[in-house]
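re: ur question from earlier - yeah i can do the single chain one, its not a big deal. heres the input i used so u can compare w yours
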Amino acid sequence: MTKKAIRFTATWCGPCKAYAPMYKQVSESRTDWEFETVDVDEDPERAKQYGVMSIPATVLEVDGKLLAKYTGVLQPTQLHERLNEW
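and the output i got, formated as tokens:
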């Protein structure tokens, strides 16, 4: 089973910059999930594929199936809780 967390961001997005170190912290402590970051300006098709309309956004998927999408900054404890649900 492949579990993946994808963070959608952009260089000009202030909340995205604030979220980046928190997302990184969680990614370094979890070996049960793959973590990826997508810049919506560099890969708008990927954002469209997941229906990302505002950023920051975090998408969780298992084996390519979309499980959940969260908009806004997730604190590390919140992100851990979301990951633990799956």
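The mean pLDDT is 96. not sure if urs matches, ping me
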